[in-house]
Write a structure and sequence with these properties.
mainly alpha, ABC transporter involved in vitamin B12 uptake, BtuC, 2 domains, 3 strands, elongated
């Protein structure tokens, strides 16, 4: 029988994983995966500052501090890019270093005062700290994020694929980017107790990367990323419960990255195996066209369309054994074996009528 704690953690992990997959899809499509990393790490000074101000590990106080710091970091990146003309990678690097350094300084200050052990929950995640009473606030906040996303779906879709076109259409691109950044910051903050500031970015990116390999449109990608995120969250919770003493957050991340790795390998169009198969098929087709062209050239040189060429000559032309290629072309009905060469006894091959038509085709 499942324990109430496991059910609570699994539900929370599924919600956070699904929400992270949805928002992470926009980060991946816009090439801003590091923005999630910046917001996650930049929430550290907010966590510690709220801890110092509130004088304890108040759940909502610390999450509010994390949200303020994360949102401020995300908006700082946008301001540096647009206001100061700083390149995106430089802006991300500067803001990440600044906020994380401030967080480390504040963390050192908190440690000197003692009683900072509770902060590790938000730094590295501790799923057991999630209470049943936390599920409703998580669901309400997450639902609010999804409602805002649905209300601005067309605008965010335009922004994800063609920001310049969105600007040309008169859309408030800067405001939309700010809104999307705030939604991402809220999502990250909700997941701090599960994965912490160090690992939360993986829950944003990995499900989206996995979903991108299987589908083309934004809507299917968002749905599939949500499913992958929920599976990774639930699977991480269950696996960590089975393995005594195994932290839930890292297992969730490993599950999400595992789904991404399998997708990168097995996806039917973008997967590594599919691409290699297409490359192998293209190589086979190229070898076949080369053999057909060689036989056609010999026929033209001898003014005899049915001229039979030696296989040894075709071997030399390809730089390898032409036997497998000729056998495949024979099965396709493009070539036929002719009599052996009287001088060398080598196998000779000639084009069939289908082979000559294939050679004259535009795509041959």
């Amino acid at each position: 029988m499942l324990s109430p704690t496991l059910i609570t953690v699994a539900l929370a992990a599924a919600m956070i994983g699904a929400l992270a997959g949805v928002l992470g899809s926009f980060l991946v499509l816009r090439g801003q995966s590091l923005l999630g990393d910046v917001i996650a790490h930049a929430s550290l000074p907010g966590v510690v500052a709220a801890f110092l101000i509130s004088g304890g590990r108040g759940f909502f106080a610390i999450l509010a501090g994390a949200l303020i710091a994360g949102a401020l970091a995300g908006l700082s990146v946008q301001a540096l890019r647009r206001g100061a003309g700083v390149k995106p990678d430089a802006a991300l690097g500067v803001v990440l270093s600044l906020f994380f350094a401030a967080g480390v300084v504040l963390l050192t200050l908190a440690q000197t005062r003692g009683g900072s052990a509770g902060l590790t929950v938000f730094l590295f995640g501790q799923a057991a700290s999630v209470l049943r009473a936390d599920l409703l606030p998580m669901a309400l906040v997450g639902g609010g994020v999804l409602v805002v996303l649905a209300l601005f779906w067309k605008e965010f879709q335009f922004l994800a694929f063609d920001p310049e076109g969105a600007r040309a259409q008169g859309l408030p691109v800067a405001r939309l980017e700010v809104l999307l950044t705030l939604l991402i910051a809220v999502t990250i903050v909700l997941g701090l107790t599960l994965a912490g500031v160090v690992l939360m970015v993986a829950l944003l990116i990995a499900p989206a990367v996995a979903a991108r390999q299987w589908v083309r449109g934004l809507a299917p990608m968002v749905w599939l990323a949500a499913l992958f995120g929920a599976l990774a969250g639930t699977g991480g919770a269950v696996i960590s419960a089975v393995g005594q003493g195994v932290a839930t957050g890292p297992v969730m991340v490993l599950a999400a990255v595992g789904l991404a790795a399998l997708s990168l390998l097995l996806a039917p169009e973008r997967g590594i195996l599919a691409r290699r198969n297409r490359q192998a098929q293209a190589k086979k087709a190229l070898r076949g066209r080369q053999v057909l062209a060689a036989l056609g050239g010999l026929g033209a040189d001898h003014a005899n369309p049915g001229y039979a060429g030696d296989q040894a000559m075709l071997d030399a032309y390809l730089g390898t054994d032409a036997g497998p290629v000729l056998a495949r072309l024979q099965r396709q009905g493009y070539v036929l074996p002719a009599s052996l060469a009287p001088e060398t006894g080598a196998r000779r091959w000639e084009l069939t009528e289908a082979g000559r038509q294939r050679l004259e085709a535009p795509d041959a």
